[in-house]
Design goal:
Layout lengths: L2 H19 L1 H4 L2 E2 L7 E2 H11 L8 H7 L2 H22 L1 H6 L1 H5 L2 H8 L5 H20 L5 H5 L4 E3 L5 E3 L9 H13 L2 E2 L2 E2 H16 L2 H17 L1 H23 L14 H9 L8 H24 L3 H6 L24 H38 L2 H21 L8 H27 L3 H6 L1
Antiparallel strand pairs: 1-2, 3-4, 5-6
């Protein structure tokens, strides 16, 4: 196996570890002890930076398909700001700039996808990863007992977390896995994927008890209705199977307790869903609704601080300072306002936000082009790959509205890596069309 192919294989393993182990794997550093260890993601960026001269031949192809103009603005403003702020705030500036740094995985994904036979391996890897993530999510009800057996890692912020069974982005991978079964029309151990997908979606809703999960399912269904009604119909059918199974369990008297320690019921679900917009309730759900008010206060404070001067309005408050004044147990400061858009505004101002939105609109346009190309070519596997990746991106966007998703490397690194793969596929399509060859050659790498 060539070094290039080995590097691509290692990258897929790392991306998979981020997606499944999430918060725990984010804390893995080399060297593993002390305060100066470098996280795995940053080590990979350093490796690609050190070997950049050997990959220069790929730069023109990257520029030809990537949203290079907005990315250049994003990276120029961000890294200029980081260099200035690092002098004043040291390593905290680097920590706060994780989203900016992790966006370099667009390039890394593009380069990795150029390795021999990567596209065929990618299709298999994607489905194995999602299946593993779905099975892993079933351990959630036993997380307290299982995490007691896991190694613990120290975070730079001063707290400890377990390597395994964190479930910080609990619903992201299992929901994507459920949609993959629907899209692929697969069967697992002889059971139609549609049935299992419905059970898994309802499991995520009932057990994780996260308001972001409710929104993810709703937004996903609405978007699919707009762009892929047939898939949305299959998703709706799957949900009917899942809800029927849930109704049977509830009628039988079986009590199901989720993340919040509350027994699931229709009344609980209604009140918890209403807490999304801050509707007041008693008990734990009341605490959840109060969190909405707290977030709004954080966002309002960021708005006031950013709009104080023309400079901060355009280029933000910078890196190295917390964007909230809130602390959790142990005095650990909550540095981000649980909304990635507000984090971008706070850090890089409205110029940074404009660049971010611009290159994302460009990426979405590329997704549609590549998806339509596979549909027209009759390539079912890669058409489904694009749908599955589109589901993952959409779920993460929804999650980022109520959490600091893009500021977490275990979300941002896989996200940008996968977009880099799509950019490579887009380039290969363009090259195949210019050469007059088949789409199969483009998809095959």
């Amino acid at each position: 196996m060539s070094l290039v192919k080995m590097r691509a294989e290692a990258l897929l393993l790392v991306i998979g570890a981020y997606l499944i182990l999430n918060h725990g794997f984010m804390l893995v550093r080399l060297p593993p002890s002390g305060n100066f260890g470098v996280p795995i993601g940053e080590l990979i960026i350093m490796l690609f930076a050190a070997t950049f001269v050997f990959e220069l031949k790929r730069l023109p192809s990257f520029v030809s398909v990537a949203p290079f103009a907005p990315l250049l603005i994003w990276w120029t403003i961000g890294f200029s700001r980081l260099l200035l702020d690092a002098e004043q705030h040291g390593s905290w500036a680097l920590r706060d700039a994780s989203h900016l740094i992790d966006s370099l995985f667009l390039w890394i994904g593009f380069v990795a996808a150029a390795s021999p036979a990567f596209m065929e391996r990618f299709s298999r890897w994607l489905r194995v990863l999602l299946n593993l993530g779905a099975v892993y999510s079933l351990a959630y009800p036993f997380r307290e007992a299982l995490s007691a057996l896991s190694p613990k890692l120290a975070a730079p912020a001063g707290y400890y977390a377990t390597l395994f069974f964190n479930f910080s982005a609990a619903s992201l991978v299992p929901l994507t896995a459920a949609m993959a079964w629907i899209v692929d029309r697969s069967r697992v151990f002889g059971v139609p994927g549609l049935v299992l997908a419905g059970a898994l979606i309802v499991y995520c809703i009932v057990i994780f008890q996260m308001r972001s999960t409710y929104l993810q399912v709703m937004v996903l269904f609405c978007v699919l209705m707009a762009i892929q009604p047939a898939v949305a119909l299959r998703m709706g059918t799957a949900l009917m199977f899942g809800l029927a199974a849930l109704a049977l369990l509830l009628v039988s008297g079986i009590e199901i307790t989720g993340r919040l320690g509350e027994t699931f019921s229709l009344d609980f679900f209604t009140q918890h869903f209403a807490a999304i917009w801050g509707a007041k309730s008693e008990g734990i759900i009341g605490s959840a609704s109060s969190g909405v008010d707290q977030r709004i206060q954080w966002w309002a404070a960021i708005w006031r601080n950013v709009t104080q001067t023309p400079g901060s309005f355009l280029f933000g408050l910078g890196y190295g300072i917390p964007l909230t004044d809130f602390s959790i147990v142990g005095g650990v400061v909550v540095r981000e306002p649980h909304n990635s858009i507000m984090s971008i505004v706070g850090r890089l101002g409205f110029v940074g936000l404009a660049a971010f939105v611009w290159f994302h609109l460009w990426l979405v346009r590329i997704w549609f082009r590549v998806y339509r190309s596979f549909v027209h070519a009759g390539d079912v596997v890669w058409r489904n790959n694009m749908l599955i990746l589109g589901v993952f991106f959409l779920l993460l966007w929804v999650y980022a509205m109520g959490e600091d998703a893009f500021e977490k490397p275990y979300d941002a690194i896989p996200y940008y890596f996968l977009w880099g793969v799509i950019l490579r596929v887009h380039f290969q399509f363009k090259a195949a069309r210019r050469a007059g060859s088949t789409v199969d050659a483009a998809a095959g790498g």
